[in-house]
Amino acid sequence: MTPCLRPLLFGLVLLPLAAQADRPLAVVAPWEITGLDPSTSGYVFARMRVAETLIDTDAAGQPAPGLASGWQVSDDGLTWRFTLREGVTFHDDSPLTAQAAALSLEHALAKPGILDSAPIVAIEAEDADVVVHLDSPFAPLPALLAHSTTLILAVDAFDDEGRATQMIGTGPYRVASVAPPQRLTVERFDGYWGETPAIGSASYLAVGRGETRALMAESGDADVVFTLDPASRARLARHDRLALHAEPLPRTIVFKLNAEHPFLEDERARQALSLAVDRVGIAAGLLRHPEAAAAELFPASLGPWHLGLAADEAQDVERARELLTQLGWEANGRGMLERDGQPFQLTLRTFSDRPELPLVATALQDQWREIGVALEVAVGNASEIPSGHRDGSLELGLMARNYGLVPDPLGTLLDDFGTDPETMGGDWGAMGWRDADVAAWLDTLRQEADMDARAELAEQVARRLNEAMPVVPVAWYQQTAAVNAELEGFSIDPLERSYRIDELRWGE
Amino acid sequence: MSENQAARATSRWASRWTSHRTTGLGGLLLQRLFQAGLVAWMVGTLTFVLTRSLPGDMAYRIAAGRYGHDMVNTTAAEAVRAELALDQPALGAYFGWLWDLIQLDLGRSLVSGEPVVAELWHQLGHSLGLAALAVLLSLLLGPPLGLLAGLKPNGMLDRVSEVAASVLRALPPFAVGLILILIFSVTLGWLPAAGHGRSAHGVLPALTLALALAAISSRVARNAMADVSQSAYYAFSRTKGLGERLSFLRHGLRNAAVPVVAYLGVQFVYLIEGVVVVETLFAWPGIGHALVHAIVARDVPMIQGTALVMGLMFVALHTVVDLLCYWLDPRRRSA
């Protein structure tokens, strides 16, 4: 063999290995890319690790240093100071400065988004710090800054009106091409401040239909497929080339009740409706995850908010009938309840963006017929629940509420229940329900910094909500994914902040 | 009415429809230009009235489309209402749209904020590519099979292709698409199941559409060919000594082609309806997919723009069909 051929052959032997390392990763999920702005599609760019937030989350789902290496709050709780990590550059090679970070946050504050929940007066840049001024103390502020509507982008990413027209982030991947509403490709960014990812390039494709997503996993067109419908899951589990993953999310299927409705204003009526629900049946039969049955709003991943109630004990049809009899309801000839000649009839609104919801709605319809309650199910658009809440026309609304939208559920709870005992409630929370204790506890939680005191208050709130039932839990969500068995290092982020593609690598 | 009779009736109707309407090429084009203007105005007005009269609050719908259902709340809806001036009278918005349309400005999407023209350009390219491939595939599959069947009416091929056509036409495109993915992607692994970016991605969605198109066009071609092959002039061509092949090429093909081409125009309705379903199934970023999303999110300029382009495309394709028939049928040129 001539000397010059040897390295060539050696190179050819190595070629398959190199090709394996360069193999692009194909991710498929149902969510479309509405545009480039963090307020509308920030979650796609955060999950694909293109852009990052000031605050990250640790393994326990608690706020952890992200682009901010640390933070302090003033004694009066009104001034928060976030110190930026050093040596971070954006994908356009401009450095991460406090000015750039403050500008991104100001743009986020000006648009609808998570920062609406915080009493922010001003956001400023001071040396290497971003300083946030509040008009009242707000303990969960760091948690809000972990949300994808607060992504930190380069100054040049925004146009004069403050809309992001380019996606210039700081993440381990940079945008190679983006074609809304469906496709995004990213490639490794060599100037990343953290660990260099193993996979060189990846694509994201939004595929709305569950059947199509499952078939793409099956045919090998996609390496990671998120959100599988229950029927496909069983089929995909039999594939050797695929590994199936499931992880409970702090997203709960709940129904809210209009507590000002004459049938529902008494706490006992709401409890009766809850007691009649066969949660284990719904979880096992419809969602195909028996452990998803939820007797309380908050799953175990939310720590002190979780009470540990058993789902199978939450059903008691006899007790439900008893409570309704106490309230003056009597069964008529057809077994349906009536009071003063009025039938116990309600309308439940829900939506199909989450495919399970209409199914769960019909299960409720069936289970409530057992106790004589007639339920009409109206499947429409997600926005009909908040708009029905506002105009007072909503009777019942079935939804999937994400209590872990940010690492601390308090932000969501403040929106859903509120701290003003006179005007409690929120678009996706209580309706026409008032409880001065819960309002006061939530208000204390806003300000209280002591962890033990916070944990105690959290438990009190969870317990009271579970008795008074302004919002009733049905099941917890499971995020599911079918993953190419050759991929190593896959895990699901229970807060859905990241697809963790920077932790993946192709196996030998 | 059986599929056979229906196709025969339509092919007769199609040839009549294309024969008496026009007086020369210029008249034809002028008439179609007028139609295009009328379609643009009517489609825009109708979509405007319909979307405005749908139940539900527009501001909430648009906010849900923009920010996703986790983030839609009254604050977001009110911000949208203020930004888009949705509390202004509808009549003003309508005349504003009409004035913009006259200046060839379709406005901006209420959801993404991008110009409607830019979004349509991206989607229309994908849809037109898909539709063109579908029509091409259907022409390769349908008419040749139909012509062969029509040469021997009630023969074996005729009966088999009639059953196949009926089954394919009866199945919704959604089911046909799933079956094709199962065969060609999951089992054989020849073609990607869904997505876009490579040319191979277009094959299955185009084939899904093409099969249903071919189902009809094969029957239309079969009936036209059967009529021709039983006609006196065709018998005469054989009597005077022309072989089967020459008779077909000289006296059969062109005569049978007129109803097939004319019927293509009717099939475009199916094509436009088909892309909506097929694009969603195959994650194809086309205009049908965009229309569904725009309706859900009450993105009025986007709905108007999409419907407008679809309407104009329909008129344009009919014009092409008319021109083809005009060229195929010399009787119309001398009339």
Care to describe what's here?
- Chain A has 508 residues and is an alpha+beta fold.
- Chain A has 2 domains: 250 residues, 3-Layer(aba) Sandwich (D-Maltodextrin-Binding Protein, domain 2); 228 residues, Dipeptide-binding Protein, Domain 3 (Dipeptide-binding Protein, domain 3), CATH 3.10.105.
- Chain A has 14 helices and 21 strands.
- In chain A, a hairpin with a 2-residue loop joins strand 14 and strand 15.
- The N terminus of chain A is likely disordered.
- Chain B has 335 residues and is mainly alpha-helical.
- Helix content of chain B is 79%, strand content 0%.
- Chain B contains 14 helices and no strands.
- In chain B, helix 2 runs antiparallel to helix 13, helix 6 packs parallel to helix 9 and helix 6 runs parallel beside helix 13.
- Chains A and B meet through helix 2, strand 10, helix 5 and helix 11 of A and helix 3, helix 4, helix 8 and helix 12 of B.
What separation lies between the terminal Cα atoms of chain A?
29 Å
User: DSSP strand (E) fraction of chain B?
Assistant: under 5%
Quick one: overall form of chain A? globular
Helix content of chain A: 25-40%
**Unreliable segments of chain B (pLDDT under 50, ≥5 consecutive)?**
13-22
